[in-house]
Amino acid sequence: MVVRIEDCAVLQNGVRMPWLGFGSMGAGANPEATVEIVAEAIRAGYRSIDTASVYGNEASVGRAIRQSGVPREELFITTKLFNTDQGYEKTLRAFDRSMEKLGLEVLDLYLVHWAIQGKYKETWRAFEKLYRDGLVRAIGVSNFLIHHLEDLLADCEIVPMVNQYEYHPLLSQPELLAYCQSKGIQVTAYFPLMQGRLDHPTLAELSNKYKKTAAQIVLRWELQKGVVVIPKTSTAARLTENANIFDFILAEEDMERIDRMNTNTRFNHHPDDPK
């Protein structure tokens, strides 16, 4: 799959979502630093910015968007509804708060952050309303496993357009990826760089072969799997490095070598035990 930084995955409703985005998780403690790193990402060519209400940085992300000088229609902004705000009416109120902080009139993608048992179906009804009202261009979920999706699909009117979950060579979850792709649900990988655990002999060999960093090899593998990636970083140099993944293609045998790295290792909570 040959793509460029400006290229997009096409969601089931026709909305275009950049293959590469900037993940802002962890960039919330210092508002000014958050504004600067998001602005730097936009200057580096990123057009997709991922945030969440629980990150505490929606206002900073909104400031960076407004200060970037890039037309709003060229940007793809994602935020997420947190667990304590789930439920029909609470979801609608939480959405309004997020939009006020972001300073946006229309959101590109809204995600249910975790599958809170007994809540996520009611929450999804509110998401469907927001979508039908034209306040959100696309709706989806995060951290949903196959059984969560099957339960949701049994009653929903709109199929989630995206499922964002932990995905990387140490946690490739091929059955979940195949299920989402069979339903037209675009997978987005968070923690795509394994929280920096890139010291692996397979990655070292491939890095030498392709003259790319281990991080670039991993991001390229994910792209070729048809997965959107949202790596996070706090440095401008890494922003540029992470974006330099569109000028090479991994051979099939090398894709398979990375496939074999899977050890079902998680760096976040299990979706059946959301915190």
Features:
275 residues; Diketogulonate reductase-like aldo/keto reductase; NADP_OxRdtase_dom; TIM Barrel; Aldo/ket_reductase_CS; two-stranded antiparallel ribbon; 8-stranded parallel sheet; 10 helices
Description:
One of its GO terms (molecular function) is oxidoreductase activity, acting on the CH-OH group of donors, NAD or NADP as acceptor. Residues 20-262 form the NADP-dependent oxidoreductase domain. Pfam families: Aldo_ket_red. The record marks 80 as: Lowers pKa of active site Tyr. Belongs to the aldo/keto reductase family. With 275 residues, the chain is an alpha/beta fold. It has a single domain (8-259), classed as NADP-dependent oxidoreductase domain (TIM Barrel). It has ten helices and ten strands. It has helices at 31-43, 58-68, 88-102, 120-132, 146-153, 174-182, 201-210, 214-224, 236-243, 252-259; strands spanning 8-10, 16-18, 22-23, 48-50, 76-81, 109-112, 139-142, 162-166, 186-190, 228-229. The strands form two sheets. An eight-stranded parallel β-sheet has the order 3-4-5-6-7-8-9-10. Strands 1-2 form a two-stranded antiparallel ribbon. β7, α5 (146-153) and β8 form a beta-alpha-beta unit. The termini are far apart. The model has no long low-confidence stretch (mean pLDDT 94).
